[in-house]
């Protein structure tokens, strides 16, 4: 019997791990698309994070040689700063995130984190340093506990609860008959968009990365939920280096710097006030969104 159950339980574990890895990849793909064949350099060292300062120096990138996507991107984010990327659809915002994660290799220039070229460090350490909060958090068909702890398998119940409290999902979880053992996902309890995002925030808090990459949702949650979530995201960003890929300008007016991309180039950058004062592209985008929001509110 032992001979039979041992391999079966082993296979079960393997199956579970593969399934989880696939779902995890699925979640990443939204922001990161398919990864290219990228391997660690021989003797690559783990990234040594001091504050999480990010620098793009003359970065060029093309998914295919005949179509340049990013052209000479120079972008620095000091440790603990929040920088927002804005620009029309297809301008290259998500691509900047994918390159920072080294899901693709730059075709020119370099990206460094705390002075270390992302090509010189292990991918494992690079990925551990960057927390991605995607537009839509994908839940695994497993318990809420598992979903929050994902990425930190050794997390204790206290740590899980602390993260859930900070993400303001703990009280909701405790209101469920099975609490943290509640099954969620396709075959379990269906969570709302806001609840799913809170699980995603708790998951990232537990991972505790020095750098955050937020891919802001375009799909609107109801406004109170949106405001609450925004508050949680802002709180999570304190003391970390944050890059926000933003669609709604109202959520990033407080950023240390707003970078406007157009067709793979930085065309403007500065604070919200400075950019409004310049009456350029950002000011035009701001005016257009304000008019849209006013029209929607009047409906
Ligand atoms: P959005 O606001 O719509 O998300 P974005 O500014 O994030 O857009 P990117 O996703 O970075 O834009 O895309 C930049 C350009 O690169 C687009 O023209 C897009 O078609 C192209 N692109 C994106 N991903 C790939 C890919 N995997 N293969 C080839 N081209 C791609």
From TrEMBL:
Organism: Rhodobacter viridis
Residues of the full protein shown: 314 to 612 of 612
Span of domain ABC transporter: 54-288
Protein localization: Cell membrane
Protein name per its UniProtKB record: ATP-binding cassette subfamily B protein
Transmembrane parts of this sequence: 1-15
